[in-house]
Amino acid sequence: MRKVMMLLLVVIVMQGCIGIAGRGMTDMNNGSLDQSLLANKDIIDMHVHVAGVGADGSGCHVSPKLRKNWRYKSYLKAFNLTEREMKLHGDRLVFQRLSEMLDQSRGVKAAVVLALDGVIDEAGELDLTQTETYVPNDFVASGITRYPNLLYGASVNPYRHDALQRLEQAKADGAVLIKWLPAIQQIDPSDQRIIPFYNKLVELKLVLLTHAGGERSFTTASEHLGDPELLRLPLSLGVKVVAAHAATTGKSDGEENMQRLLRMFPEYPNLYADISSLTQINKLRYLPRLLQHDVHDRLIYGTDFPLINTPLVSPWHYPKSLSLRQMRRIAAVDSPWDRDLLIKAALGTPREVFYRWGELLSD
After folding, report:
1. CA–CA distance from 31 to each of 327, 328, 348 (Å)?
2. Which pairing describes strands 207-211 and 177-180: parallel, antiparallel, or unpaired?
3. d(CA 301, CA 354)
């Protein structure tokens, strides 16, 4: 972990030096900063993760391999939590900390908290031996009930033998979307066997938020399942699909995943993409590139929290795009959500993108 942080620091310093030198100390945007997004607390973050260690009968699971990985402690720290606290007070403490942190935001009023189903075996049952992280629907649905600023995002692996019943239960419990991470759940979105699942999503008017592109948050992943082209099946059946992270990073058939996604927008009016994680240091080039295309009406605001509350996301990563004054002013903002809003706005994200999820919920 220490080596990773040192490398990150070196990259930031080098970027800063290059940016300042290239700009000749000229304040590109006169230090202006659009803070109107913080004037009214009415934005919804539709992409927030939680996890648990299995304390107090939560049913949550984190594989031994992931617990030994540097990512694990980094995620806990982002929630202002320790494993000891969770074991002492129970996994549901994560909802309290999340709600308290979100309450400090001036711009974001609520967040969709995502469950995460696991790998399913040939009998249609959960296989924890092959699952890195499992966050049960019941854990999220019950855990958010005390917190008005938290919304329920369910997760159902379509290979479960009772997948359709689980979808109906999720809807009854107030789920606003279904979350997939195919590369770690071993889901092939193009599998004809799951057409009944897609039809049920349409019937229940549930949005499918599915990871697209490369996956680096876990220790192992089946990268080929992040190919956006695999989403043609649910899209053709009328499912409203949100491609998480706009399919940034990774390639499929030698072509960048984001490029494969972009050409699909004209074909499918029910295709959207969220801009979560696009302020991370490993994705600096993607948001500006995405905004160059005429897809603004398909973009949705999300953060991929807790990652926005780690050194991966900082205004100091943008010396070539933001002025020194802008970076300082954003860095001085306490809330990780408000910093993320200001960074994305300063990089040119249209105002309507930040409010689109609320519009989809009202459709």
Report:
1. 9, 9, 15
2. parallel
3. 5
pLDDT of residue 13: 46
| pTM score of the predicted model | 0.89
Instruction: Please tell me the distance from the alpha carbon of residue 207 to that of residue 291, in angstroms, as a whole number.
Output: 23
Residues forming beta bridges with residue 177, ordered by sequence position: 153, 207
Question: Do residues 127 and 157 touch, judged by C-beta distance below 8 A?
Answer: no
The letter for the amino acid at 191 is D
Q: Which amino acid is at 221?
A: A
Q: By the 8 A CB rule, do 255 and 227 touch? A: no
Angle in degrees, 0-180, between the axes of helices 195-204 and 163-172, rounded to the nearest 10: 20
H helix or E strand, kind and range, residue 92: none
Dig out the tokens for 277 from the structure.
């994680």
Comparing CA positions, the residue from 243, 248, 290 lying closest to residue 270 is 243
Cβ proximity of 239 and 202 under 8 Å: yes
> Bridge partners of 43?
108
Q: Report the alpha-carbon distance of residue 361 to residue 8 in Å, rounded.
A: 38
Let me know the angle formed at the C-alpha of 79 by 181 and 314, rounded to the nearest 5 degrees.
80
**Could you name the CATH architecture of 2-362?**
Alpha-Beta Barrel (3.20)
CB-based contact 279:309 (threshold 8 Å): no
The answer to whether 175 and 183 have CB atoms below 8 angstroms apart is no
Q: Tell the burial category of 353 from Cβ atoms under 10 Å away from its Cβ (0-12, 13-18, 19+).
A: buried
Residue 80's CB is within 10 A of a number of other CB atoms, namely 14
Ranges assigned E (strand) in the chain: 43-49, 61-62, 108-114, 133-134, 150-154, 177-180, 207-211, 241-244, 251-252, 255-256, 271-274, 299-300
Distance CA 198, CA 234 (A): 6
Q: Which tens digit of pLDDT belongs to each residue from 299-350?
A: 999 999 999 999 999 999 999 999 999 999 999 999 999 999 999 999 999 9
